[in-house]
Specification:
heterodimer, A: about 280 residues, alpha/beta, 9 strands, B: about 110 residues, alpha+beta, hypothetical protein PF0899 fold, 3-stranded mixed sheet
């Protein structure tokens, strides 16, 4: 384990706060080897289609069957429940913000922090494959933030959030916003222990996105439709998108907003304040 | 490519199993993947192929079974195949349903020598 940052020797995941000496950002102030998995590539067998049983001959015997019936996501799910318990004990309202890259998650967050940052005690966890850019944007607003860089990882998991939150030292009664890696597929499977999952789509995307990526929309609680100021210029049909989203998840609650003009943001703020208190 | 995370978790569970069972030699592992689990079976197979090298599953036969997505209509009680989260009830056209199967992502059995 790296003594400076606590990152695991075999893990490319890093945790950094803006303006702190230790950093793994593009400047590489603190350089050390993060050994990646070595794949020796011994392709000494002729057939490329592994059948997984070619090396093993066990003739008539099929071995002794041991029933396992264990959910493969158990480890993540139980750690997520630990996070959830921690958040509940400290009355922290945790949001998991997910979307495709470019839907406006960080801009939504920035505007929210500017507009109601005085009313609620915000903390932010930023997730991206690389760079401190998003954390720097949040830090510029004087909001405590930590950046998780997943390296090649396509999603945050409960363990990353657990480590990040410990470093962030979140106060009681706070609102913790976890901005996930921009990706509508992978993050849907990984519970982080959040109170609510918020999926953002923008009108510059297809209005059929909810049924193209149903797993994510099914797992979300809130759907924010962003960039509505651009509706006159695009073919996005808001009602159609909402119908699609409702068909995969009829509990979804919608907010139609423009982060740029501020339209619709007050409803989102009212929901945040109201839900945080309950 | 979250299938690689899933492959890693499968290996971790198998490694723990082998330790608990005094280094038992795993010859086969059966995995169930639901159609609505968010996992692409081909990608999982590909990820496993890379990830099992030098692990307890290196020599194990890996069997992945797909489980159909199923829904029960809350209006008429009809049970039907719903492979995409948004198939209306074929009997009454209602979209009000509970998913009753297809979210599985589990290791069903491990076979040891």
């Amino acid at each position: 384990m790296c003594d400076t940052c606590g990152c695991e020797g075999d893990s490319p995941v890093t945790y950094n706060k803006p303006n702190e000496e230790h950093s793994h950002d593009e400047k590489n102030e603190h350089s050390h080897e993060h050994p990646h998995h070595e794949h020796p590539h011994h392709h000494d067998h002729a057939d490329k289609h592994h059948s997984h049983d070619h090396k093993h001959e066990h003739g008539h015997s099929h071995g002794k069957e041991m029933k396992i019936e264990q959910n493969i996501l158990t480890k993540n799910n139980s750690l997520a429940e630990r996070n959830r318990g921690y958040f509940e004990a400290k009355n922290i309202f945790a949001l998991n913000l997910v979307s495709s890259p470019g839907s406006g998650k960080t801009s939504l967050l920035e505007r929210t922090l500017k507009d109601i940052g005085q009313d609620l005690n915000f903390y932010v966890v930023e997730g991206d494959q690389q760079t401190m850019n998003d954390a720097n944007r949040i830090a510029a607003l004087k909001v405590p933030v930590i950046q998780i860089n997943t390296g090649n990882g396509c999603h945050l998991d409960a363990e990353m959030v657990n480590k990040a939150v410990k470093q962030l030292n979140v106060a009681n009664d706070a609102v913790l916003v976890i901005e996930n890696v921009g990706n509508l597929v992978c993050p849907s499977l990984f519970d982080l222990g959040e109170s609510k999952r918020v999926v953002v789509i923008s009108v510059t995307e297809g209005d059929d996105k909810p049924i193209k990526y149903p797993t994510m929309f099914h797992s979300a609680d809130i759907c924010i439709i962003n960039k509505i100021d651009l509706l006159p210029y695009v073919d996005f049909d808001v009602e159609k998108a909402k119908n699609y989203a409702s068909s995969v998840n009829h509990h979804l609650k919608f907010f139609e907003v423009s982060v740029k003009t501020g339209e619709g943001m007050s409803a989102w703020y009212a929901w945040l304040k109201d839900t945080q208190q309950h | 490519m979250h299938e690689l995370s899933i492959a890693t978790s499968i290996i971790e569970i198998a490694e723990e199993f082998a330790i608990k069972n005094k280094g038992a030699n795993i010859i086969k592992i059966e995995i169930e993947v639901g159609e609505l689990s968010g996992i692409v079976v081909d990608s999982l197979e590909f990820a496993l192929e890379l990830a099992i090298e030098k692990t307890v599953l290196e020599r194990a036969k890996i069997i992945i079974t797909t489980i159909k997505g199923m829904a029960r209509c809350k209006q008429c009680g009809n049970e039907y195949v719903n492979s995409d989260w948004y198939t209306a009830c074929p009997q009454c056209a209602s979209m009000d349903f509970d998913i009753t199967g297809g979210k599985e992502l589990q290791i069903k059995s491990i076979f040891i020598e």
